[in-house]
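Field notebook, page 273. I keep forgetting to write these up properly, so this time I am using the form the group agreed on. The chain and the ligand, NAP, are recorded exactly as supplied. Prediction of the bound pose follows.
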Amino acid sequence: MPSYVVTGASRGLGFEFIRQLSADPAAIVIGLARDKAATEKKVAAEIGRSNIHIFHGDLVDYESLKKAAEDTSKITGGRLDYLIANGALVGSMSAYRSLSDLGDDHKALEDDLLAAYKANVIGNINLINVFLPLIRKGDVKKVVLITSGHADLELVRDIKLYMAGPYAMSKAAMNLAIAKYHSELGSEGILFMSISPGAVQTSGYTDPTGLSGKDKAGLDAMVSGFAKYAPHWKGAIMPDESVKLIFEVINKSSVEGGDGGSFVSHYGNKQWL
Ligand SMILES: NC(=O)c1ccc[n+]([C@@H]2O[C@H](COP(=O)([O-])OP(=O)(O)OC[C@H]3O[C@@H](n4cnc5c(N)ncnc54)[C@H](OP(=O)(O)O)[C@@H]3O)[C@@H](O)[C@H]2O)c1
């Protein structure tokens, strides 16, 4: 009976994770969401499976994460097989701007950097720490951070990905945290990995018609960089395809196979698109 915890279960990839994982009636699927009631309603209307449990979980609220781990423990018998750290502060005023451009309002930039760091780094470290006792007792022992190709140094350098600095830096910091966890706990057989989902059509993926000025220029630069990097690329994929590919990578990865602490794409390598 595999057990899963997925953060950011309210929408986008997180919602798709709980939809796909709950298709196995033997699975216990726990989604953490900031708005528990709204997510429960959406799950009932759009998925309708009794093996999905939604708990309140906000990455910037340590107590909510602690309580979610306690509640999870009660229904899994103190164990957890998979922790999918998917939730993230994605959209922000810095999504398509450069760091120098954002420097025109240094206070807003500071707030943006701190917000990204607080949710995506401190929040995920707290999340992993409160669920670690359950993971240790699980059979599968896999902790996966959903990260971004924006955090890959070579990609940023090669295609001039100057935009989304605060978000990308928070993902890069968390990728390193995942490698740190592996260095400490890989010998216990716990797999820690960072996996990028590709470019996926979720609310975290902006419709270009809503952008103007420097934001539109930033998005255009990003898309043309993607086209140069991956001429085969046909645009963002759908959440169901991304989640399927991510789980193929999770299933074939292991500490013994040398995957601990790695940072890969939904293809299991450094091909980000
Ligand atoms: N879509 C892409 O192209 C893409 C590309 C690279 C990486 N990613 C990564 O994929 C993951 C999922 O993103 P998505 O595309 O599904 O984006 P999304 O549709 O914007 O969903 C983001 C999710 O994160 C949750 N979240 C935001 N702040 C949170 C907090 N403080 N605590 C807990 N949950 C929080 C949101 O909950 P609310 O509903 O409560 O706001 C929502 O469920 C993220 O880690 C993102 O960085 C996505």
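OBSERVATIONS:
- The pocket of NAP is lined by residues 7-8, 10-14, 34-35, 58-60, 86-90, 119, 146, 148, 196-197, 199-200, 202-205, 236 (CB under 6 Å).
- The mean pLDDT is 96.
FOLLOW-UP: compare against the apo run.
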